[in-house]
Each structure stands twice: as C-alpha cells, then as structure tokens.
Amino acid sequence: MSDELDAVLAGVALPAAPPMCDELERELGALAPVRARNPRRDLALVIGASLAYAGAFLAILRLRRDLDGLPMGWLAAYAAAWFAGFASLAWLAIVPPRGQMMPRWRAAGIGAVIASILFIAGGILLHQEAPNSVYYGWDKFHRGHWCLEIGLATAIVPATLGAIVLRGVLPVGSRWAAAALGAAGGSLGGLVLHLHCPIADGVHLGIVHGGVVLVSAVLAAAIAPRAKMSP
Amino acid sequence: MSAEVITLMERYVDGDAAAFRAIYALLAPKLRGYLAKMTRDRAVADDLLQQTFLKVHRARTAWVRGSDPTPWIYAIAHRTFLDEARRVQRAVVSVGKGEELPEVKAELGGAAEGATETAPDPELTKAALAALEALPPQQREAVVLTKLDGKSIAEAAAIAGTTPGAMKVRAHRGYVALRKALGSPEASTASADEGGES
C-alpha cells in the first residue's frame, strides 16, 4: 500500500497555471534592473553605522567616572561580551546560509532569548565595583530608568537599519528575526551603558542594563509587521 | 531545476521580463497545486497564486545572487495562504500547534483542466486525494510539500516556518492518516504506536 500510495501521490497531475494577471503584466512591462541583496554588505552597513552612532552617543554622554577604579580585565571582557552579542545576533538575523535567501531566523530568535537571559544573569552575578562607583540596589532601583532609555535609544538604530535591509526577505519568521535585531540593538545599548553608567550594583546591571536586551527584543518583535520584513 | 531557476532569477533582476515569465512557467503549476490543496478552492488558489507572484516581483531586491529562490517563493505562497485564511472569518485560524484553519468550500483543487492523469490507479488516486483533503491543514501541507511537490523535509520546514523535526512528524502523521483512510492494515499499527494526534 505504501509504495502504491507513494506512486499515487507522486503522480498526481499538476494543475495548469492560469496566465499572469493584468497587474503583474503591467508591472513587468516597466521592469528595470535592480540590485540584488548582498547580506554581508548589509551586515557591514548595519554594524558600521550602529557603532558610529553608538560612539557619537557615548561621546555626548561621556565615559563612566569610575572607569579607572574598575578591573581592566572585567571591563574589557564585559565590553567584548556586549559587542559579541550585538554582532552575532545581527549576523544571525541578516546573513543567510550559503546558497539560501532567508536568514537563520529561528537561530536568531533563540539567540535573542539566550542573550537576554545571559545578560540579565551576568549583570546580577558578575558585577564589579570601584570605590567611586554608585550603588542603587533595590532601594533606589526605580531611579535607574534613565539607563533603560539610553539603551533603547541606542538600540533604535541597529534595529531600524536591520529591518530596512531585511525588507521583503522573510515571508516566515520575521518576528523572530526582528526580535534578534532588537536584542542586537539592546546589546549595543548595553555596551554604551557599560562604558557610561557608574551605577555598579548587580540589580541595576542585571535588570536594567541586561533588561535593555529583552525589552528591545520584545518591542522589535511587536513592531516587526509594520517594517515590511515579510513581502 | 534549482540551477535553472537561479539562472533565470539572475536575468530577471537584471531586467529581463522573459526570465520572470519562465520562472512563472516553471513554478506556477506546482504552486497552484500546493495552494489548491491548501485552500480546497481553485478560484481562491488562482487568486493567491497571482498575489504570490506579485509579492515575488515587488520584493525581488531581496534575492541574493547565487541562491535558490524557490523556497522563498513557496514561503511567500504559504504566508499568502495564511493571510487569506485569517481574512476569511469562518472559523478559528491557526498558525501554531493545535489550531485550525478556516474550512473553505470542500472541493479538490488538484485535478487539472486538460491535465493527464498519470497515477497508476484512478480509483486509488481519487480516494487518496479525498483523504488528503480531509487531513488537518498542517498535515495536509506537510504531505503536499513532501510527497506531491517532492520537497525535502528541510525545504518543507523552511517554507512552512517550522522545524524539520516538526515537519517530519506532520508529514509522517499525515501519511499514516492517509494510509489509514485508504484501509491499509499497516497504518492501524503505525497510528497505534504513534500516540496522540497533533
């Protein structure tokens, strides 16, 4: 029965396709050459423009005042982690596997979830303080909202640029890819905060700085349908 | 076919309208078959087919040189079908697990005008297609993509926006249900082993 059923299914006659509709014919009549998407160039554009924006933003905000008192290894490693989160999530969301058109949106979405968890947990568990750092803790936790705003303001550029370069690319999985772009932007926001914010307690670092990744991922996923990432 | 489609796509983005027509000629019959089996309405399938190719045309800058656009075009057809299903407010709509798509008019869209039937047994073909029509949408899509359109599990999963594992399960369950509907004794054993339905 299986072989017979296979033969039946494989042999089902294809319906004849109807002619193209008038609207399509009209648009084809005015066909002009277009530039195909180049994902690696798009990624370079998103990363380059976002870093330039974040650098300018940081120059306005100024570096954290407790920079000299912090362990240089921790400072560099944490900055590298933020940057790696930004670059790897952007890469997953924008660059498809060789020979394919659609990026790895599922891996990108999972990456956004993992990055959110890691940066929140990392902030809580791996914080370092200098003598002139600021301590908020739970008592003044609500006063740290400014950092969330800075982080989200930084995240806007990579998330928006990413959505622009992915226009029409993802008929499926656009929300996941958008979440990854948001998380990538949030990671860049975390990097800016890491170099700017002198508040050094674990609650602030984890929930506010790490939370930027989660909040921007959720916002980006919610806004994705308006970004026309799906054709 | 994939190399041919890639070559045609190269010419198409470079401004050759004839290349697009050739892509249409290559892919439209299969896409129409897919859409007809998903919608169970030939007129709706034809409309969705045109919408799909309009979207392909308008989003052609999304193509990456050297890549096969076929899974992307199928995924656009899949999305267009889901959007249409949501628009039609006849029943609960679902994209995820356990949800249902609206039931449109019960008619088999696979039979072609002027097409030659190549199946070995016309009665079995008729019964198989009727059973296919009765499958839940996700299983039907899985069987259509993997058995009728000859897509690999990975390709079908990419088109439907799911994991290869989930697509494999859907295709298997759909196939088992088809065999059961056609009275195969081995299907009863398989479905008993299978446990619950998705």
Summarize the entry for a quick read.
The complex is a heterodimer of chains A (231) and B (198). Chain A is mainly alpha-helical and 231 residues long. Helix content of chain A is 65%, strand content 0%.
Set down the secondary structure blueprint:
The complex is a heterodimer of chains A (231) and B (198).
Chain A: H1 2-10, H2 22-29, H3 39-61, H4 72-94, H5 105-125, H6 145-165, H7 174-196, H8 202-223
Helix pairs in contact in A: 3-4, 3-6, 3-7, 4-5, 4-7, 5-7, 5-8, 6-7, 6-8, 7-8
Chain B: H1 2-13, H2 17-39, H3 42-58, H4 70-87, H5 122-134, H6 137-148, H7 153-160, H8 164-181, H9 185-194
Helix pairs in contact in B: 1-2, 2-3, 2-4, 3-4, 4-7, 5-8, 6-7, 6-8, 7-8, 8-9
Number of helices of chain B: 9
Overall helicity of chain A: 55-70%
Summed up, the domain count of chain B is 2
Judged by helices, strands and strand pairing, the structural class of chain B is mainly alpha
So, the CATH homologous superfamily of the largest domain in chain B?
RNA polymerase sigma factor, region 2, helix turn helix motif
Number of strands of chain A: 0
Could you give the order of the helices and strands of chain A?
HHHHHHHH
Mean pLDDT of chain B: 78
Spell out the key features of this protein.
heterodimer, A: 231 residues, 65% helix, elongated, B: mainly alpha, Rna Polymerase Sigma Factor, Chain: A, Arc Repressor Mutant, subunit A, 9 helices, disordered C terminus
